[in-house]
Description:
alpha/beta, about 40% helix
Amino acid sequence: MAVEVVILDIDGTLVLSNDAHAxxxxxxxxxxxxxxxxxxxxxxxxxxxxxVIPKLVPELNSKEGTGKAIAARRKExxxxxxxxxxxxAPGSRELVFKMQESGLHLVVASSASHEELDxxxxxxxxxxxxxxxxxxxxxxxxxxxxxxxxAALKKAQITPDKVVMLGDTPYDIESAGKAGVRVIAMRCGGxxxxxLSGALAIYDDPDDLxxxxxxxxLAPNAKQVLGI
Length: 228
């Protein structure tokens, strides 16, 4: 089945933000008396806070008490401290434009909140191009749960067999897989090829995919089909 819809992750895929998110978690946990090392936090980037918080401090959750305060403080740091430091991944705008030019229907699926997502789309310079979005606000559970991907499929009104997702973490691959969607992965999120081994294909970044677009599964005349 040829690809008709592309679901887009943003953090780590179109914006080089995973290290900033890790640092925001570290600073926030420290403020509340929990010392968590970078090497413990960084591999969890790509998950939403509802998963990150209990994985780092099992007695906490993002819905109540200290865990809820940590989630709110982390969001505040991203919005007010770290967002000015973020940069788009190479080729993000050009790739989005190319996919639209090829006739693909694009829908954003991010574990970020709508407030964070608005900033991220501006950083990637695609805020004028991408208007259909789903975020953590549209799902009961964030990645690696399939909720956000399923919300994107519902928004696009399409079945998974005609869809591919662009992502950068094992959690994108896991969440998309649970929803029946295959993933093209980007190394610019900081994960190894081994960690991304469940992907349909792996590229360095959006620019790398753009340079190989005509031989990718996204090309209008692609011989590849989903399900191979």
